[in-house]
Design a protein that fits this description.
FAD/NAD(P)-binding domain; D-Amino Acid Oxidase, Chain A, domain 2; Glutaredoxin; 3 domains; 8-stranded mixed β-sheet; 15 helices
């Protein structure tokens, strides 16, 4: 059964076992799933070495997470991973919502043009992991250790010590920081005796991945009161390799083990697909919604990311698509701390920002679950009234909740933000991920952001490039100046990198006029913005975004070497 050929990865005796000598690593990552692998690649991208431990010797069994959002694709693109994923995955942006046989409405997740990446791709998790492993194996800065099971975690003030079981026996190793990305059943979390807080939902859901030839469009189809199933809801997605994801809501009283058997699954699918449709079961799982998280994601030198830190309903694709930004948020901060350019306090902002993001996702997915699994006369009446009005009235469609699809969280109250001091009608606020835009004809704005801090200056004839802009690159924490030039203006950027606004999208999406400027963090998130360049204000914002009291210029000899 199954169209994916699982390959195994060889166990290699770690150096600590070969030599018997202790080892100290900058970062150890537990878990070689999408989040852990992304963290390893991002750290390597920033010059930080890491060791990744996984207790298995292959990618995840079953398709698991399949919907990867635009923001996740932007992160993977920056890390050199997105191209094979988008080539293999199924691109989509349209969804349809039904009530019984009645089509209520269609939604478009990316209605405007001029974006590099699609709203979503559907790609089985095992493929995503495979491509990430290929990327890791091309990097000298990452050591991926298969069949390495963590059995003890000993955090100290200046390090974390791990005991690890392997086919060659146990060994111990140390690291400056430990990142736990080992999933919902996190071993690290259990070893540290940490508990989730939150809630379980009563209803159970069946996931069935079905391989078949079918003419369903590449859209997300969601049914309330499906005519082919006795449960309250159903969902259909197309994946790669002619595999379809089908979710069926079963209710709270079913036996999960029994419902996962072919004897129960196949008749349900035949009611949906038709008795004559030939299909093959790829993977089956029965689950309950969970809305839970750790109280804190940082515990000294141990940091939790992805499902080891938080669990949400899969409706809305907010699990993996919040875990990947966890990894990105943490990687640049760890790189600055380990490089001695920022204090350890910067890592507290990881906890503040990603706990906020988790709560945002938990709130949204819990509302979805409460709407889908309405209990009691009033919630049921509200749901059915919204469904009844949604065909004709747009306001009612906003009330129908079939899963709010994942978007990047805006960290409104991040301690790293510099609040606006000028008037803005729109644009990208502090704490929000930058909007992409085509530049220089065949290039993209985000391709120029994401390694270091960057500074976007929007040029115009009445706002020439300020004299102090080039000096930002010589700060102790360097800031890359980028000058956005209106298309056809023909201006130079005073020796700095010029980005011609090919379609006018950059000026529009950033609510920019000549002289507007943005300070951008290494995770492509805005730290502050101004209507005119003020070097002192930019330096203060940089200090705030890196948790430093002051940001000093480079020493004279360093400036000469860089020049």
């Amino acid at each position: 059964m199954g169209s994916y050929e699982y390959k195994t990865y060889d166990f290699v005796t770690p150096e600590e076992q070969r030599t018997g000598a202790p080892a100290r690593h900058p970062v150890v990552i537990v878990g070689a799933g999408p989040v852990g692998l992304t963290a390893a690649v991002d750290l390597a991208y920033r010059g930080v070495r890491s060791v990744v431990l996984d207790d298995e010797n292959q990618v995840s069994e079953g398709s698991r997470a399949i919907c990867w959002a635009k923001r996740t694709l932007e992160i993977w693109d920056r890390l050199g991973c997105a191209e094979p994923m988008e080539a293999k995955g199924i691109t989509w942006k349209l969804g349809k919502v039904f009530d019984g046989d009645r089509h209520l409405y269609t939604f478009d997740l990316l209605p405007e043009p001029h974006h590099k990446h699609p709203a979503f791709i559907n790609l089985q998790q095992y493929y995503a992991e495979e491509y990430l492993i290929d990327r890791v194996n091309a990097l000298d800065a990452v050591e991926l250790r298969w069949s390495n099971r963590v059995t003890a975690v000993e955090p100290d003030a200046d390090k974390v010590t791990l005991t690890i079981e392997t086919p060659d026996g146990p060994y111990r190793t140390e690291c400056d920081y430990l990142i736990a990305c080992d999933g919902a059943r996190s071993t690290v979390r259990k070893l540290m005796d940490l508990e989730f807080v939150g809630r379980y939902f009563e209803d159970r859901f069946l996931i069935a991945d079905v391989k078949m030839k079918a003419n369903f469009p590449t859209e997300r189809w969601f049914w309330y009161h499906p005519p082919f199933h006795e449960g309250p809801s159903a969902l259909l997605h197309r994946q790669a390799d002619d595999v379809f994801r089908i979710d069926l809501q079963l209710g709270p009283e079913v036996d999960p083990d029994e419902e996962a058997t072919p004897e129960k699954v196949v008749p349900r699918l035949k009611k949906m697909l038709g008795e004559d449709v030939e299909f093959e079961l790829e993977w089956v799982s029965v689950y309950r919604f969970q809305a839970r998280r750790l109280a804190k994601f940082r515990h000294g030198r141990v940091l939790f990311a992805g499902d080891s830190a938080h669990q949400v309903s899969p409706f809305g694709a907010r699990g993996g698509n919040s875990g990947i930004p966890d990894a990105e948020n943490l990687a640049w901060k760890l790189a600055l701390v380990l490089g001695g350019k920022a204090p350890d306090d910067l890592l507290d902002s990881y906890d503040a920002e990603r706990v906020y993001a988790a709560d945002d996702n938990l709130r949204i997915t819990s509302r979805t679950t409460d709407f889908m699994s309405a209990k009691g006369a009033v919630p049921v009446a509200f749901r059915d009234a919204a469904l009844g009005l949604a065909t004709k009235w747009p306001f009612a469609r906003a009330l129908v909740n079939a899963g709010r699809l994942s978007t990047a969280t805006v960290h409104w109250d991040s301690p790293l933000n510099t609040p606006d001091g000028d008037d803005w009608a729109g644009g990208v606020v502090a704490g929000q991920v930058c909007e992409d835009a085509p530049v220089n004809g065949d290039d993209w704005l985000l391709d120029h952001l994401g390694r270091d801090f960057a500074f976007l200056y929007f040029f115009g004839a009445e706002a020439p490039v300020p004299d102090g802009l080039s000096g930002l690159a010589r700060l102790e924490i360097p800031v890359q100046p980028l000058v956005v030039v209106p298309q056809g203006e023909g201006a130079t950027a005073g020796g700095l990198t010029a980005l011609a606004d090919s379609e006018g999208c950059a000026f529009a999406r950033y609510d920019a006029r000549p002289g507007s400027c943005y300070l951008v963090r290494p995770d492509q998130t805005v730290a502050g913005r101004w209507r005119r360049f003020d070097e002192a204000a930019v330096r203060a914002a940089l200090a705030r975004a890196s948790c430093r009291d002051a940001v000093a210029p480079a020493a004279p000899q360093e400036q000469a070497a860089e020049a």
